[in-house]
Amino acid sequence: MNAALVGVSGYGGMVLFQLLNNHPGVDQVNLYGHAQTENQNLGDVVSLFELGHFNQQQIFPYNEIQIMQDNDVVFFATSAGVTAQLAQPFIDADFPVIDLSGDYRLNTQALYEQWYHKQPAQQSALDTAHYGLVEFESAHNAKYVANPGCYATATLLALAPLVKNDLIDVDSIIVDAKSGTSGAGKKPSELLHFSQTNENLQVYKVNQHQHIPEVVQELQTWNPAVKAIQFNTTLLPITRGLMSTVYAKVKAGVTQAEVSEAFEQAYQDQTFVNWTDRRFPTIKEVVGTNDCKIGAIYNPDTHTVMVVSVIDNLIKGAGGQAIQNFNQMFNFDEAAGLPVNVWVP
Ligand SMILES: NC(=O)C1=CN([C@@H]2O[C@H](COP(=O)(O)OP(=O)(O)OC[C@H]3O[C@@H](n4cnc5c(N)ncnc54)[C@H](OP(=O)(O)O)[C@@H]3O)[C@@H](O)[C@H]2O)C=CC1
Ligand SMILES: CC(=O)N[C@@H](CCC(=O)OP(=O)(O)O)C(=O)O
């Protein structure tokens, strides 16, 4: 099987390219870029790949007809707003797409315009796109997969057992999420400047983060009573990794044992979500892996449950989950092409 990748020059694309090259079901990865007017060596565009066997790999000028002729699936690891403009011909042709951007995650054009401030995709396509939170929504029959956002992935995996088992008051959800700088992609900005991020913490996008409606939308499919969540994001002075800390008031009579049981039941058969019970995982434990690790502690004095969920934003939060969606779509083993339990000290 041949896989096309658009966006190899971005952080997400660089990681996804390496994962696709190690996938046993992928014979060839073909690269396409909007900046290319003629074929270019990958090594001349992305310095990470200037040595070794990737150097001679070509990036072809972006051409949707060529992509469909020469490949069986296309991955878009492109900036927000790009697939809303580029993906419709693939949808019209029923050609499989896995999209790492947020362009097809929200159900309505109005929501997308409100939170992304960009021109939306066609409503008919938003109606049919599949939201690929792999542990809960199988992409088996999907043609267009909207890969979830990094914060949304860690947060939804933290909330799912509590919401699905009706253990919490859904009006009381507070999410305090923090990410390393690679979550923002490769484009420099004042916020991301070394002097500003180093030895510093910065709260950003207060009440305006684009993953708020994404999380609420998915929670509503599990419990229609969910109306809104308080969700905050902080930039950490690290490159990789993300932690989502969730707080919620538990319903009367709920115990730590019931909380633990809900997480145990939800994730005991999942390869890439690891329940650490009352031990809170750290970011370093998951960097370089496709794992999400989750711990939860109930405080009977405040009737509050606190959940800590950690992922590598570029793997489980982007390219790794995209590979899981690919595996579901094409009936590969769920762990094909993914490192399982690669621990770092
Ligand atoms: N970084 C992360 O942790 C995560 C990112 N995502 C999402 O994945 C996507 C990629 O993110 P990331 O890699 O961080 O972003 P980067 O900014 O690092 O890379 C963006 C990529 O998109 C390409 N691109 C930009 N405009 C166009 C266009 N008009 N046509 C085709 N390609 C274009 C860029 O090419 P060029 O170099 O030529 O400009 C580059 O390859 C984004 O939508 C992001 O929101 C999702 C989860 C986590
Ligand atoms: C640190 C940082 O800036 N992270 C990004 C996460 C990017 C992302 O995943 O956003 P999409 O919804 O466009 O995919 C942010 O907070 O916007």
UniProtKB/TrEMBL annotation:
Keywords: Amino-acid biosynthesis, Arginine biosynthesis, Cytoplasm, NADP, Oxidoreductase. The active site is at residue 150. Gene3D superfamilies: Dihydrodipicolinate Reductase, domain 2, NAD(P)-binding Rossmann-like Domain. Residues 2-144 form the Semialdehyde dehydrogenase NAD-binding domain. InterPro entries: AGPR, AGPR_AS, AGPR_dimerisation_dom, AGPR_type-1, NAD(P)-bd_dom_sf, Semialdehyde_DH_NAD-bd. It catalyses: N-acetyl-L-glutamate 5-semialdehyde + phosphate + NADP(+) = N-acetyl-L-glutamyl 5-phosphate + NADPH + H(+). Pathway: Amino-acid biosynthesis; L-arginine biosynthesis; N(2)-acetyl-L-ornithine from L-glutamate: step 3/4. The keyword Flavoprotein does not apply. Its EC number is 1.2.1.38. One of its GO terms (molecular function) is NADP+ binding. GO terms for biological process: L-arginine biosynthetic process. One of its GO terms (cellular component) is cytoplasm. It is found in: Cytoplasm. Pfam families: Semialdhyde_dh, Semialdhyde_dhC_1. Catalyzes the NADPH-dependent reduction of N-acetyl-5-glutamyl phosphate to yield N-acetyl-L-glutamate 5-semialdehyde. Belongs to the NAGSA dehydrogenase family. Type 1 subfamily. This is N-acetyl-gamma-glutamyl-phosphate reductase. It comes from Paucilactobacillus nenjiangensis.
